[in-house]
Amino acid sequence: MTTNESTAASLRDMRLCFYGAGSMAEALIQGLTKRGLIAPERIGVMNRSNGGRLAELAERYGVSPLHDTGERLAWLREADIVFLAMKPKDAGAALAALRGVVTERQLLVSVIAGLPIATIGRLVGENVPVVRTMPNTSSTIGLGATGVSYSQNVPAEGRAVAETIFGAVGMTAVVDEPLLDAVTGVSGSGPAYVYYLMEAMIDAAGQLGLAPEAARELTVQTVLGAAQMMRTTGGDPAELRRKVTSPGGTTEAAIAVLDESGFPDAVRRAVARAAERAGELGAIMERSASK
Ligand SMILES: NC(=O)C1=CN([C@@H]2O[C@H](COP(=O)(O)OP(=O)(O)OC[C@H]3O[C@@H](n4cnc5c(N)ncnc54)[C@H](O)[C@@H]3O)[C@@H](O)[C@H]2O)C=CC1
Ligand SMILES: O=C(O)[C@@H]1CCC=N1
């Protein structure tokens, strides 16, 4: 058995607990269950108060909804991996409740934007191994992009399991922890920039008279094709753009409008601002953790 096969086999015997059951948790649950990485009932889901949401996830994916406090505590204690998947503003209180509950035998996997490994350690105890990640919602369909960093005490098997999980729902890049804020700006928030561009393209197509379905399908295929071209050819995006742009033609006219509107600079500033915001959220969480 290869290392990958034995890691996948040990993952199948594990229990996972999602602490926070929102969009990002669902993206990972869907990716993991649809790929058959683990039996769905081995995944427990809990949230703050919305029992209906847990029932919905149980119905959709077959995961185990954790409604009462005893049940939640038992899963948090016994899970091999606990995913921290609440909003940054809720992280402090949620993590403080884990102190004395999770131990060094488990793995804490955070998907929370900006939350430093040191802050997690301060709240739950320094002995607990932490995997800090920045995934994105495309994990739902196996096309996620996840940045990963480890606390010093994550054992080799823990690293292999984390990379197997995120690798099964897309690609992973292990980076130094400070770079996770940049990953957040590029690929964590990134799908929203692309959707925003697509919203505007569909809108423009409609204004030019295309039927909504045609506007949508032409836009989707264009984005998909452009991404796939870049991947398949390995080409530089500027060069691929040049191949579309005939001198004196339509693309050149369009790019001139984007340049006049400051498009490239706006995108650079948006990515940088998202990364900066991740740092700000981290600092807020660190300040409240050290009070
Ligand atoms: N949505 C996205 O595209 C991405 C989100 N993230 C990160 O994932 C985290 C979650 O984001 P979303 O899923 O979008 O948020 P969401 O609002 O959809 O879900 C948050 C969940 O946390 C639960 N929660 C809050 N406090 C809790 C507590 N004390 N105990 C138990 N559950 C609690 C809520 O009930 C809810 O189920 C955030 O920290 C975000 O930075 C990371 C990458 C991408
Ligand atoms: O907007 C957010 O804060 C989260 C983190 C990356 C994507 N969504």
TrEMBL record:
Residue ranges of domain Pyrroline-5-carboxylate reductase dimerisation in the record: 177-281
The EC number of this protein is 1.5.1.2
Q: What is its main location?
A: cytoplasm
Keywords assigned by UniProt?
Amino-acid biosynthesis, Cytoplasm, NADP, Oxidoreductase, Proline biosynthesis
Zinc as a keyword of this entry, yes or no, is: no
Return the InterPro entries for the record: 6-PGluconate_DH-like_C_sf, NAD(P)-bd_dom_sf, P5C_Rdtase_cat_N, P5CR-like_CS, P5CR_dimer, Pyrroline-COOH_reductase
- One family name in Pfam for this protein: P5CR_dimer
User: What is this enzyme's class at the first EC digit?
Assistant: oxidoreductase
Q: Start and end of every Pyrroline-5-carboxylate reductase catalytic N-terminal domain? A: 16-114
Question: What reaction is this protein's catalytic activity?
Answer: L-proline + NAD(+) = (S)-1-pyrroline-5-carboxylate + NADH + 2 H(+); L-proline + NADP(+) = (S)-1-pyrroline-5-carboxylate + NADPH + 2 H(+)
Q: In which pathway does it act?
A: Amino-acid biosynthesis; L-proline biosynthesis; L-proline from L-glutamate 5-semialdehyde: step 1/1
Q: Where in the cell is it found?
A: Cytoplasm
Q: What protein family does this chain belong to?
A: Belongs to the pyrroline-5-carboxylate reductase family.
- PANTHER family annotated for this entry? PYRROLINE-5-CARBOXYLATE REDUCTASE (PTHR11645), PYRROLINE-5-CARBOXYLATE REDUCTASE 1 (PTHR11645:SF49)
The task this protein performs is described as: Catalyzes the reduction of 1-pyrroline-5-carboxylate (PCA) to L-proline.
List the protein's name: Pyrroline-5-carboxylate reductase
Q: What is the lineage of its organism?
A: Bacteria, Bacillati, Bacillota, Bacilli, Bacillales
